[in-house]
Amino acid sequence: MRILAVTIDLDDTLWPVMPALERADRDLNDYLCKHFPQVAQTFPIPALRALRAQVAAERIDLAHDFTAQRYITMQRAFDACGVADAPLDALFEVFAAARNSVELYPDALPALERMRAAWPVVSLTNGNADLERIGLHLHFAHQVSARDVGVAKPDARIFLAAAERLGIAPENILHVGDDPELDIVGARDAGLRTAWINRAGHPWPGALGAAPDLDLRDLATLVQWLETAPAP
């Protein structure tokens, strides 16, 4: 396997995302309770999550843009309550501040530091994490998001966009991620090599076809493999 670059997923690969999303929901609810109690009462956290899911199901044209879906969700919530002039930017800022307050897995930062010293590393995500706010942007040669590309993983086009940005053939790029379908199947179908970060040690879902090139428990093991693999 001749690896010249690495693309890597963010949420649940570098950090667990659910604690940040749950905190974001709580902070947004607190903001609504303080400034728009009618909206908070009508749309407590479970109801707002259900509305968000409804928007996602209806607006499949925005499946690649979680930020746009959240804006629409908040607009609908305010409209349903008859509250004019929803402060959408302020509401999203409350969400984003908490969403980007993530706690990295212990192996993530050391792995990024070692990888970027030897290979170009590209973030490749469906989500709306902000690497600059998180403080990790300097570890990446490029950042590729579904929102910018217009398609989401597992669509091959987002992986090929990363390859084009790098100027490297897909077969010489290793994609690293936690999701068997979004990351591994998507990258495999685009012609990239694949590394599944399988922290829980699950068996590979055979229904998804060929297993990943690498099935690893953490990013430290990934870096060890990269550093000991035969040089190009």
What is the succession of H and E elements? EHHHHHHEHEHHEHEEH
- Strand fraction band? 5-15%
Derived from helix and strand composition plus strand pairing, the structural class reads: alpha/beta
CATH topology of the largest domain: Rossmann fold
Low-confidence stretches: none
Number of strands: 6
Task: Say which CATH homologous superfamily of the largest domain is assigned.
Answer: HAD superfamily/HAD-like
Widest sheet: strand ordering: 3-2-1-4-5-6
Number of domains: 2
How would the global form be characterised? elongated
**Percent helix among the residues?**
40-55%
- Main CATH class of the largest domain: Alpha Beta
Measured between the Cα atoms of the first and last residue, the distance is 9 Å
Number of helices: 11
Taking the sheet with the most strands, its summary is: 6 strands, parallel
What is the correct CATH architecture of the largest domain?
3-Layer(aba) Sandwich
Task: Give Rg in angstroms.
Answer: 19 Å
Query: How confident is the prediction overall: mean pLDDT?
Result: 97
